[in-house]
């Protein structure tokens, strides 16, 4: 792949004795949208958390947009500026208002003037359809609203890559759709590179260019969504799909 | 939903659920044991209060000579305080110049009060401190602006106690935070250094630190080099308190969920930005109660400088008691300084509670 924005080669990682990532080779093209699924404990969250160095890999190499992830703090900071992340539990800052949550990164990391950062923040809040909540604190919002704020917070940094770590699995069922709608809109309008760990198969079919299935730290199977869901090749994939698709 | 689940119009609250009577019955006489305890407490109060009031106020001597006080010892001898309060409050500072420490004390208190108000929480606070310190320094030392020079060996009483506390708090707090961060650092050298510091300092009593600062430290100084004794005591107090603050702050840091660190890191904040904007504001808010307790403890512990002969409030009152003319009125002296200590500690405690309330913003609980 010539224009790969993320290139992982022979990545291995252990938690103590537990081999959590095994020989991961993955290339992601610029603008590509990837859904990663797999049973719990298969290493899918760890995989995407290695991309912005929330987790450290121990073997192999990860190159993000031409910069290799090493222990060099400046490189890690540079990569984090370009990589946004949305977490399962939102990880909003409870002591700051929604607007302050959104402007913190742009003003402190990108050194934007506050007025400009606020303006951009309001634009993104409109995009995730909650501009009226700007002055509230995260604790006053519903789960779905909080997750949309978290998405807007990442967007404010103008990232080239967005990572989603099970963004809907901590939400009440009726709020899943509002978050997925925002993510679908983002995928279709922005052309941003997206890696999404999720079990929302409808979402995968709608927006993913590629679905990756992981089990026990390995990438077992990857394919286009339709082929993946309709004609899984691997036995473990079949078993997993039969379990989540009821 | 069936019809009988529809609530009726609101009924008035049942009678007897409010008011003095109910309060008494619920709080004081709810069971035989409670009734007994109430009676016991009432009896103890009856025994203790009237004699106390009599001693403190009714039969007290407000003015007069020591001889008059001694003739009737059933009342407190406030004449002792009336005669000695200037010495207790300002020590051996030249008598006719004592308006200076009084003004300096007022300025110091005003500076601290301003620091506690949110409206001053900006860069201007530094200016307030610089101005406050300069003004108190000039007033205390003099030697300029036509003020007579007064050496700090003559200082004493309340200004000393306040100075040791204010600088103690102002320096120990940031130092404690740095130590707490250091103890959680990923770098083993820094971590070890902080752990050793905290454990060593916490492992010895303040008294021994003060002794070391005043007696042992000078032994290591080169000939002719000396640091003021007061300053050495001040440093000992700062180092001691910082170790406790560090452990309290570390507790607060540990209570912050990992997701907050990850959220901050994912938007690219550097370590210090993350600590300053995300982690510490939340961690410190959690530990306001124990921090205030530590500050109150520090305020009272400054009285230990008595053992190295620094004239703080405690030593001035003891010296006043030792005056042959006024022998035997130590209770009055202790009550007097006790009230002063209490006033400051209680103010800190109330401020701590107000601060907790105010920082509660955004946490809907």
Give a structural overview:
The complex is a heterodimer of chains A (246) and B (365). By secondary structure, chain A is of the alpha/beta class. Chain A is 39% helix and 26% strand. Chain A has a six-stranded mixed beta sheet, with helices on both faces. Chain A has a four-stranded antiparallel beta sheet with strand order 2-1-4-5, with helices on one face. Chain A is globular. Chain B is an all-alpha fold and 365 residues long. Chain B is 69% helix and 0% strand. Chain B contains 15 helices and no strands. Chain B has helices at 20-28, 32-58, 66-71, 78-90, 99-116, 124-141, 158-183, 188-202, 206-220, 229-254, 258-266, 271-286, 288-301, 313-321, 330-359. In chain B, helix 4 crosses helix 14 (313-321) and helix 9 packs across helix 10. Chain B starts with 19 loop residues before the first helix and ends in a 6-residue tail after the last helix.
Global shape of chain A: globular
Radius of gyration of chain A: 18 Å
Q: What is the terminal separation of chain A in angstroms?
A: 36 Å
> What's the helix count of chain A?
9
**Secondary-structure element pattern of chain B, one letter each:** HHHHHHHHHHHHHHH
Q: What is the largest interface, and how many residues per chain? A: A-B, 30 and 21 residues
Beta content of chain A comes to: 25-35%
Termini Cα gap of chain B: 31 Å
Query: What is the typical, i.e. mean, pLDDT of chain B?
Result: 86
Order of helices and strands of chain A: EEEHEEHEHHHEHEHEEHH
- What is the structural class of chain B? mainly alpha
Largest sheet of chain B: none
Strand content bin of chain B? under 5%
Assign an overall shape of chain B: globular
């Amino acid at each position: 792949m010539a224009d790969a924005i993320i290139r992982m080669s022979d990545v291995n990682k252990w938690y103590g004795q537990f081999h959590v990532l095994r020989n991961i080779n993955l290339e992601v093209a610029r603008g590509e949208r990837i859904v990663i699924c797999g049973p719990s404990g298969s290493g899918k969250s760890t995989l995407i958390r290695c991309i912005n160095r929330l987790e450290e890999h121990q073997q192999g190499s990860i190159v993000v947009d031409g910069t290799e992830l090493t222990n060099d703090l400046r490189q890690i900071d540079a990569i984090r500026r370009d990589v946004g992340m949305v977490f399962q539990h939102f990880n909003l800052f409870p002591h700051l208002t929604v607007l302050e949550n959104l402007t913190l990164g742009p003003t402190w990391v990108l050194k934007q003037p506050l007025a400009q950062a606020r303006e951009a923040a309001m634009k993104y809040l409109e995009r995730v359809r909650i501009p009226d909540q700007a002055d509230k604190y995260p604790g006053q919002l519903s789960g779905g609203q909080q997750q949309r704020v978290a998405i807007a917070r990442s967007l404010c940094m103008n990232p080239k890559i967005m990572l989603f770590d099970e963004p809907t699995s901590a939400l009440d069922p009726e709020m899943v759709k509002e978050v997925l709608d925002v993510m679908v809109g983002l995928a279709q309008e922005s052309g941003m590179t997206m890696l999404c760990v999720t079990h929302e198969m409808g979402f995968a079919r709608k927006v993913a260019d590629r679905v990756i299935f992981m089990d026990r730290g390995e990438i077992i199977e990857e394919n286009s969504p339709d082929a993946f869901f309709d004609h899984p090749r691997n036995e473990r994939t079949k078993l997993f799909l039969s379990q989540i698709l009821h | 939903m069936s019809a009988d689940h529809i609530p009726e119009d609101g009924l008035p609250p049942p009678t007897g659920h409010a008011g003095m009577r109910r309060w008494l019955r619920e709080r004081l006489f709810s069971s035989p044991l409670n009734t007994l305890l109430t009676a016991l407490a009432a009896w103890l109060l009856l025994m203790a209060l009237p004699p106390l009031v009599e001693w403190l106020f009714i039969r007290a001597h407000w003015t007069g000579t020591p001889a008059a006080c001694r003739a009737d010892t059933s009342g407190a001898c406030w004449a002792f305080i009336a005669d000695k309060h200037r010495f207790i409050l300002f020590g051996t500072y030249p008598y006719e110049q004592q308006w200076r420490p009084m003004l300096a004390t007022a300025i110091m208190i005003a500076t601290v009060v301003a620091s506690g108000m949110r409206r001053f929480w900006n860069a201007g606070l530094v200016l307030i401190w610089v101005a406050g310190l300069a003004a108190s320094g000039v007033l205390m030392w003099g030697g300029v602006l036509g003020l007579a020079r007064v050496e700090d060996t003559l200082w004493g009483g309340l200004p000393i106690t306040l100075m040791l506390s204010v600088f103690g708090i102002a320096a120990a707090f940031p130092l404690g935070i740095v130590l707490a961060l250091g103890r959680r650092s990923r770098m083993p050298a820094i971590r070890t250094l902080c752990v050793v510091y905290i454990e060593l300092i916490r492992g010895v009593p303040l008294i021994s630190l003060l002794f070391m600062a005043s007696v042992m430290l000078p032994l290591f100084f080169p000939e002719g080099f000396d640091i003021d004794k007061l300053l050495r005591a001040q440093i000992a107090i700062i180092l001691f308190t910082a170790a406790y603050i560090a452990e309290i702050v570390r507790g607060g840091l540990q209570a912050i969920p990992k997701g907050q660190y990850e959220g901050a890191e994912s938007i690219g904040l550097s370590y210090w930005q993350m600590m300053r904007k995300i982690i510490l504001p939340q961690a410190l808010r959690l530990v306001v109660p124990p921090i205030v307790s530590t500050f109150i403890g520090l305020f009272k512990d400054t009285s230990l400088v008595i053992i190295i002969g620094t004239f703080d409030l405690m030593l001035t009152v003891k010296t006043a008691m030792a005056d042959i003319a006024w022998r035997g009125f130590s209770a009055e002296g202790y009550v007097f300084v006790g009230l002063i200590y209490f006033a400051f500690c209680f103010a800190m405690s109330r401020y701590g509670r107000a601060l907790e309330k105010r920082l509660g913003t955004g946490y809907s609980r």
